Amino acid sequence: MKLIFEYSYGLFLCVVIGGVALVLSTYIPLGAVAIAIVLGIFLGNILKLNKAFDSGISFSEKYVLSLAIALMGVNLNFSVLKELGTKTILLVVGAMIVTIMSSIVISKILKYNFKLALLLGIGNGVCGSSAIAATEKVIGVDKEEVGLSVAIVNFLGTIGIFLLPFIANIILNFTDIKSGILIGNTLQAVGQVVAAGFSVSKEAGHVATIVKMTRILMLFPLVFILILSFKQRTNTKERTFKLPKIPIFIIGFVLFSFVPTFGLLSDSVIEVVRKTSHFALIIAMAAIGLRITFNSILKNGKMALVIGGLIFIVQIVFSGTLIYFLY
């Protein structure tokens, strides 16, 4: 009972921030996850929170986040691959690789924080906040870097809702199918893809959504590649070889991905799990926001936004060029 009481203050605060973020997201096209971080940053810097809140906030950013990532697996339905041709699947994989690799190259050229740039590349290249949340513990970044990357990726995606249809229709003169592929292969969050895709046409919206779902599937192999890669970097420094330890939330993530793929639960139950995962992620991001100081934003935010923008440009140019010449 004492343990529950110890966590109650901080957890309740994060839940309230998450609830407010959900309400505001119906009016602000930024997404509840990004809004939760912004609200958390604002409250964390304006209010001087009592130490009684610390345990609950730490619980939210660690255990609630792990729960969110595990349940996030229900978003992975491998059957969507049947609806895409080989060419489009290769485009999705190629764009993801180029986007993530560009973040590494840009970080080296500009001599910027490698891990933060990589997180921005993953957020842009795969599926926004979800990809950042699923990989941040593997990469080993601090909470301020997670908060910055989520905020920046969501901000860029919000701009992209209006920018991508303009590029596809006006500049490249794409058909609805081509427009859908471009939108689905570049925007970061599912909501952003749906908004941008259906603003073009129903056909573009449908194609964009399928392409986006395929990008989300890429999170599955990416997590394991990162686990092996960062473990290998550590082993090289230690001059030893050890099998990589797979975090329990990643195992849960994989197991939950089997649910929609093999139809293990009804659609209504899957939707409940999906919403639970989404709200858990919002709560965790509110907790992360509460830990971020204005000083860290002023110090790292401007350059991180520049790098995130450059990565987004590379992603759009690469996808747009291939679609233009190959479709």
Task: Give a description of the structure.
The chain is globular. The chain is built from 13 helices and no strands. The chain has one domain (2-326). 81% of the residues lie in helices and 0% in strands. It is mainly alpha-helical. α8 (190-200) runs antiparallel to α9 (202-217).
SSE blueprint and pairings:
Layout: H1 2-25, H2 32-46, H3 54-71, H4 86-109, H5 114-139, H6 143-171, H7 176-184, H8 190-200, H9 202-217, H10 219-238, H11 248-261, H12 267-291, H13 294-326
Keywords:
globular; 327 residues; mainly alpha
In short:
The protein has one domain (2-326). Helices cover 81% and strands 0% of the residues.
Mean pLDDT: 88
Work out the helix count: 13
- Indicate the low-confidence ranges by residue numbers: none
Q: Structural class, please?
A: mainly alpha
Q: Classify the helix fraction into a percent range.
A: over 70%
Count of extended strands: 0
Q: Termini distance?
A: 62 Å
Looking at how many chains there are and whether they match, the oligomeric state comes to single chain
Counted up, domains total 1
User: Biggest β-sheet, characterized?
Assistant: none
Broad shape: globular
Element-level helix/strand string: HHHHHHHHHHHHH
Radius of gyration: 19 Å
- How much of the sequence is in beta strands? under 5%
